[in-house]
Design brief:
The chain has about 525 residues and is an alpha/beta fold. The chain contains 11 helices and 21 strands. Strands 13-14-15-16-17-18-19-20 form an 8-stranded parallel β-barrel. Strands 3, 4, 5, 7, 8, 10 and 11 form a 7-stranded antiparallel beta sheet that branches. The longest helix is centred in the last third of the chain and has 17 residues, at about 340-355. The chain is elongated. The protein starts with 15 loop residues before the first strand and ends in a 10-residue tail after the last helix.
Length: about 525
């Protein structure tokens, strides 16, 4: 039951706030706090009588006991910020008068709505808040206090004291966004304008050291993926369709290839459409990470360094073997362990620097998948702050209900499903490597080729949530009509509504950054 609507919610008419001042005025955009509303990434309920029942696709949550069948509802939220206050807002579709609804912290967020049952339901903690419900009440808002202490994923269970009737709560499957469960957070910082408010013009934003914008966010794309269309032609067509020049032009190379090519360099020399390059290079193609680390590909590295020094005068981004998680082999003899990757990365960057390549700004680009984040080896991938200029994320959203369906926050900060690392990707990067700019080096919204889902609803969540993540300094869309599996359409032109919503993103002044 994952959401595809914007994060900024409104209070329902006639709502009853518990532990809050009714009718308090909304804070102006000039205040020092922001009121942020985040919908659940997962929600479902369990049944004690039907122990294998899964309810992740239901439009209503249920709490209470009827004929001995106890039902408990679970909600999961992911936020990129700590909050000074939090309230859980639930829209009701019927509740026994005088019953008490109780919210309890869940000890783990490793559960998923698609598989949650009473048999595998997570254990509950002791932190609770309760509210007595009145006859005909349509909403309840429960004050959770200062429970959201850091960026991350939080889960809650909802139970009812009633033993004769159930309380029914609209879930995130509900067709009306305003009736979905919402976690209303009070976070530090200037308030972000509501979606309907035109963005204030951004002026004077340029790129500074290491191509980090002095303000705003760099806009970029890779277009024509897995097609026969030349990438430069595909990008120009994409720019014409979306209405903005891609300041970052993303291309891919491997092994002994000498790049950027003449066509790629030509894309950076158009004065009317300023662009820089994001070059992906699999240096270890035909070898292993350990082999590169041991110097077995030094001739390859030196040859490419000489080519770059002779042909590339402007700064450019360089990503070494993006998405390494997919290729990790934990066998120490494989040469492809996480530590081998970090060693390969360090060796290449240090050798390039020694060869006088000073205009390559490197990006370590992860997948940020919650399964990999939970692996014990995942922290070993990081090569070190001294050889990393930007931290990159390659992450995608599903426009259809199911795996990775959600809003832009879901893309940025998926939490680990288990393990010792409790931070989502954005939280990890900003906590463990504070000050490093973040590049969303690949992102996109997809649906199956067998059907067309509304990508526009997901695109509508991007701007406000991006503006709440100040560490993100660049966004690079990966556009293709069919991915390498032949099953997913990631094109922004898949429907008129998708293109219209995406053009609104592209037109926002936050991307008015001049390449210097």
């Amino acid at each position: 039951m994952r959401r595809t609507q914007g994060v900024f919610g409104t209070l329902l008419a006639g709502s009853l706030a518990v532990g809050a001042i009714a009718g308090a005025p909304a804070q102006a955009a000039t205040t020092t706090t922001t009121q942020l509303s985040v919908s659940a990434s997962d929600d479902a309920y369990t049944s004690s009588a039907r122990k294998s029942l899964t309810t992740g696709s239901e439009t209503k949550l249920v709490a209470g006991t009827v004929a001995g069948d106890r039902k408990v509802s679970y909600l999961k939220f992911t936020t990129g910020k700590a909050a000074t206050g939090a309230k859980l807002a639930l829209a009701l579709d019927g509740a026994p008068a005088g019953s008490t609804l109780t919210v309890t912290r869940v000890l783990t967020s490793s559960w998923a709505e698609s598989t949650l049952t009473s048999t595998n339901a997570p254990a509950l903690g002791t932190t609770t808040v309760s509210a007595k419900l009145a006859a005909g009440q349509r909403e309840v808002v429960l004050d959770l206090g200062a429970q959201i202490t850091a960026a991350g994923t939080y889960s809650f269970a909802i139970s009812s004291s009633s033993t004769t009737a159930a309380t029914r709560i609209h879930s995130t499957e509900h067709g009306t966004a305003g009736l979905r469960p919402a976690l209303r957070l009070t976070v530090a910082g200037a308030a972000t304008p509501a979606p309907a408010t035109p963005a204030a013009p951004v002026s004077g934003c340029t790129t500074g050291a290491k191509l980090v914008p002095t303000c705003g966010v760099l806009w970029g794309a890779a277009a024509g993926g897995f097609t026969s269309t030349p990438r430069d032609t595909a990008l120009k067509q994409w720019e014409a369709a979306t209405g903005r020049t891609a300041a970052i032009y993303h291309t891919y190379h491997k092994g002994n290839e000498l790049f950027p090519t003449k066509a790629e360099l030509a894309m950076t020399q158009d004065a009317a459409k300023p662009r820089t390059l994001l070059l992906n290079w699999k240096v270890a193609y035909g070898d292993t990470w350990a082999g590169v680390k041991a110097g077995k590909q030094d001739k390859r590295i030196d040859r490419w360094a000489a080519y770059v020094k002779a042909n590339v005068k402007k700064p450019f981004f360089l990503a070494l073997h993006h998405e390494p998680e997919n290729d990790v082999n934990t066998n120490p003899e494989s040469g492809m362990t996480a530590k081998d990757y970090a060693g390969m990365y360090r060796h290449v960057i240090q050798r390039l620097r020694a060869n006088g390549v000073t205009n390559a700004i490197n990006v370590v680009a992860y997948m940020g998948n919650e399964t990999y984040l939970a692996k014990s080896w995942w922290p070993d991938l990081y090569p070190g702050d001294d050889v990393v200029d930007w931290i990159g994320l390659d992450s995608y959203l599903n426009a259809e209900k199911g795996y990775h369906h959600g809003d832009f926050n879901n893309l940025l900060d998926r939490g680990p499903v288990a393990g010792t690392n409790k931070l989502g990707f954005y939280g990890w990067a900003t906590t463990k490597h504070a000050g490093k700019p973040i590049m969303v080096a690949e992102w996109g919204v997809y649906h199956s080729l067998k059907r067309t889902a509304d990508k526009g609803a997901v695109f509508d969540t991007v701007l406000n949530q991006l503006k709440a993540r100040p560490a993100v300094k660049a966004m690079v869309y990966f556009d293709c009509p069919a991915d390498d599996t032949g099953d997913r359409n990631i094109a922004v032109t898949s429907s008129a509504s998708a293109l219209a919503a995406f053009k609104k993103i592209a037109a926002d002044p936050i991307f008015n950054v001049s390449l210097k």
